[in-house]
Amino acid sequence: MSAGIMIGNMLTDVPELCCQVVVATAGDAAAAEREALRLAREFWPLRHRMQRKLISLERAIAHGATIAGAMMFTDAAVATSSGATGASNLIINGLRDAGYRKRALAQIVDPAAAAAAHQAGVGAQIEVSLGGAIDTKRFAAMQVKARDRLLRRPSAPGDPENRTRRRPYRRAGV
After folding, report:
1. Distance from the first to the final alpha carbon of the chain
2. Which of 82, 108, 121, 151 is the most interior residue, by most CB within 10 Å?
3. Which range among 2-6, 7-11, 12-16, 52-56 has the greatest average pLDDT?
4. How crowded is the C-beta side of 18, counted as CA atoms within 13 Å?
5. Which DSSP string corresponds to 38-68?
6. Residue 173, Cβ neighbours under 10 Å: how many?
7. Which pairing describes strands 71-73 and 104-106: parallel, antiparallel, or unpaired?
8. What is the DSSP secondary-structure string of 61-125?
9. 3-class secondary structure, 143
């Protein structure tokens, strides 16, 4: 028997992205269903422990300025894993408006900006419109100057040119 709980997105309005319990057995469907229900019933009253407290962008930027190293910013409301476009530049714009000078990771979907980066190549500085490419009603494009440090093209698993499988960080002793 093998079992797992897949944690869904608490902010989504897509029912299919809820939490799911999956149990696999060697042909014993009744046992799988019984264990799935048991796990779900144990998990449900504890679900609040899985939810993070959301904070404002201003507070996140202020916090990021106080820690050593890079900060990762994410906007759960525009996550592509929830069916959103990922075209929001609100975090990047907020970082710029706040004068944030440290390294930060803030994801955005912008096909034209990505194409310009690939065309220019690693190390090249580009000037592009960023954000709002897919969702122009909610996000206005902003002009940015950017320099690529690493470019990757997605490829299929098993492809000898697959560079998406590299481990970007190493743990001590590994």
Report:
1. 30
2. 108
3. 2-6
4. 8
5. HHHHHHGGGGGGGPPPP--HHHHHHHHTTSS
6. 4
7. parallel
8. HHHHTTSSS-EEE--GGG-GGGT------HHHHHHHHTT--S-EEE----HHHHHHHHHH-TT-E
9. strand
Alpha carbons 112 and 124: distance in angstroms, whole number: 16
CB 104 within 8 A of CB 71: yes
- When mean pLDDT is compared across 42-46, 90-94, 153-157, 167-171, the lowest value belongs to 167-171
Task: Tell me the C-alpha distance between 166 and 174, whole Å.
Answer: 14
Q: Which amino acid is at 129?
A: S
What does the pLDDT look like over 35-54, one tens digit per residue? Answer: 999 999 998 888 878 777 78
Mean pLDDT of the chain: 82
Question: Could you count the other beta carbons within 10 Å of the beta carbon of residue 91?
Answer: 21
User: For the CA atoms of 93, 74, 80, 110, what is the dihedral angle to 10 degrees?
Assistant: 30
Residue 24, H or E segment: strand 20-24
What pLDDT digit, counting tens, does each position of 104-129 carry? Answer: 888 888 999 989 998 998 889 999 99
Say how many CA atoms lie within 13 Å of 125 toward its Cβ: 2
Tokens 């194409």: give the residue: 115
d(CA 56, CA 75): 10
In this structure, which amino acid lies at residue 154?
P
